[in-house]
Amino acid sequence: MNTNFFYLTTELVIGFFALLLITKVLGKTQITQLTPFDFISALVLGELVGNAIYDKEIGVQYVLYAVLIWGTLIYSVEWVTQKYKSTRSILEGKPAIVIREGKIDYQQLKDNHLDINQLQHLLRQKDVFSVREVEYGILESNGSVSILKKSNYDQPIKKDLNLTPQKVYLPITLILDGEILYNNLKETGYNLAWLKHQLFAHGITDEKEVLYAEWLEGESLYINTYHKE
Hints:
Strand content: 15-25%
Number of strands: 8
Helix content: 40-55%
Shape: elongated
Order of helices and strands: HHHHHEEHHEEEEHHEE
Largest sheet: 4 strands, antiparallel
Strand order of the largest sheet: 2-1-3-4
Distance between the termini: 73 Å
């Protein structure tokens, strides 16, 4: 029993420092710029070490070997992307403009397997609660979204100009992926006839043409169709 504890302790300590060394060698990009490939690599590396440590038939040398081989592969990929720029889009991915000139680019969403709900979530992480505030939105290779706000919503803020604060309203999504969200419509105090009239005023006869529509108190209805206008 004591011998087993000794070997387990030895393998845990060695595995810990081996992973620490690999992390230092690979650099901070493993954390600060985590791409899907990096995430999977980290999971696989941890799984390899975990299996090696708790498998009685595998010794310390196999733990080190697993860490060394996988770490070498990851390092090689990083070296290739730094040395040859043409490989970056393949191995690391490339940014995609998902909001262009205030309009959601549905084709880019499809190409990057991103739906409207996910896009809204990413925008809220940037303290943006309405698509109408965004002039350009760029989906980065690590899955985050970088935004450039429209001039009306950018700095300076009202506090800087000593303007009187006004009540803030939360935007309400009325149409998502061509489907009317009736519960949300009810919250606005309007009915289906009003919404149909608003769509018709924009030359839209069927809500299925609409990718995203948003209502905000005091503002006109924001409508984004599947096709660029």
